[in-house]
Design brief:
Order of helices and strands: HHHHHHHHHHHHHHH
Radius of gyration: 23 Å
Largest sheet: none
Shape: globular
Length: 422
């Protein structure tokens, strides 16, 4: 007796997710984040031009930049709490508007009132600081989990490209306009950052739902610290990142100009090394847009440790090409860490505490950087440049290696679930 064969199930592949670059909501957020990153980078560069044009003294520049850093550090903690307590889009709007308002105040104070410039710089730093965790959390609302690594890589790529082309463009504009006009242009960038991003996809609470009693800002920030402590990989990564920034990055920031001048007798090595670092970071962002290593955390820590090649290359009288190559490797490595780090934070941290944990990231890593810069120069004067560079290079290699031993560090959280076999 003949039987009709049962129909076989089609083994068609699941439809491929649409590229994040075709998502209008993400593109608006991407453009706003890029504008804020470019404005953040441009301010110290433009103020440096003001020093060259004798509209601002060196001591005044230091005071203004210090006020900006102080405003950032205070606001990044408060902004993280506010972004978890209220709409992340609203926090982006008002903090970016504050930074935009600071730009004309800086322009008015230029050459007239150092006090006004200092206050305006603190306001600009506060706007920048409050924006950072809100943008991170808003990305998790706008982009679905499968495309967040691509989204973070695209954002990093845009910011790195801006910092690569920015100096030449700003110098070109400075030939035709004054520093005050450039400062107003920074304000326009902040307006773009404030107005362009759309709303996130968080669900609204029912009208009749009881509103929970809000704790104090301090209590909610402490709650964010508790959330961070739940993730050993995050604490280990934050410690490794802080060591690399406070020691490795600070050491090279101080030593590279000195070595370029004294050993190679030219500023060309300084410019070429910094350019190579940015180009390397661009390449790293492109790679991480699609790279999915099996042990993502270990691969990211290896990338972070690669920054140690930068201070290592400055220890010995090598050919300038070695220094430039080492900085390119360091740039690649830093993005092999940054993009998975941001993506894992958005994936693993509780959504209602994401902005606070992100603010802790920025607060610790950025907050200790000035301490490193302040200590490196006296250490070089006391011990010499080679021993200091050697110690900082060793820290860059060893601290990320030690971080890989932390629980859940191998995958930056939970290991991926094994695929079911049929």
């Amino acid at each position: 007796m003949a039987t009709t064969p049962a129909p076989t199930e089609s083994k068609s592949r699941p439809p491929q997710a649409r590229s994040v670059l075709r998502d209008i909501a993400f593109l608006r957020l991407w453009a706003g984040t890029t504008a804020s990153g470019l404005a953040t980078w441009a301010l110290p560069f433009v103020l440096g031009l003001a020093v060259l044009q004798r509209e601002l003294g060196a001591a005044g520049l230091g005071l203004v930049l210090a006020a900006r850093t102080a405003g950032f550090l205070v606001a990044v903690a408060v902004g993280g709490v506010l972004a978890d307590r209220h709409s992340r889009r609203a926090v982006v709007l008002w903090s970016a508007l504050a930074a935009a308002a600071a730009a004309p105040l800086l322009a008015v104070g230029l050459g007239r009132s150092l006090l006004l410039m200092t206050v305006a710089a603190a306001l600009a730093g506060a706007g920048q600081g409050a924006c950072r965790p809100a943008f991170q959390a808003l990305t998790a609302e706008v982009v679905d989990p499968d495309r967040r690594q691509q989204a973070n890589a695209a954002t990093t790529l845009a910011v790195r490209a801006s910092t690569l082309a920015g100096p030449a463009l700003t110098a070109l504009l400075a030939a035709f306009t004054g520093v005050a006009t450039l400062l107003l242009g920074i304000g326009l960038l902040w307006l773009v950052a404030a107005l362009l991003p759309g709303r996130g996809a968080t669900a609204a609470a029912p009208d009749d739902a009881p509103r929970p009693r809000r704790a104090s800002l301090r209590a909610e920030f402490v709650d964010g610290i508790r959330e961070a402590r739940r993730h050993p990989w995050f604490l280990a990564g934050l410690g490794a990142l802080t060591a690399v920034i406070a020691l490795g990055y600070s050491a090279t920031s101080v030593a590279l100009p000195l070595i370029s001048r004294d050993r190679y007798a030219t500023e060309w090595v300084l410019a070429a090394a910094m350019t190579a670092y940015t180009v390397g970071a661009l390449g790293g962002a492109l790679v991480t847009a699609r790279l999915r290593p099996r042990s993502q955390g270990w691969a990211a820590f290896a990338g972070l440790a690669a920054y140690g090649f930068a201070p290592l290359s400055l220890m010995f009288p090598v050919h300038p090409a070695v220094v430039i190559g080492a900085y390119a490797v360091a740039g690649i490595g830093i993005e092999l860490f940054n993009v998975p780090w941001f993506t894992a934070t958005q994936r693993e941290v509780a959504p209602d505490k994401l902005a606070r944990v992100s603010s802790l990231d920025f607060l610790v890593s950025y907050g200790l950087a000035p301490v490193g810069l302040a200590l490196i120069a006296p250490a070089i004067d006391t011990f010499g440049v080679t021993p200091v560079l050697g110690a900082c290079a060793a820290a860059c290699f060893l601290v990320p290696a030690a971080a890989t031993l932390a629980p859940t560090a191998r995958h930056f959280g939970r290991p991926p679930a094994p695929r079911e076999t049929q």
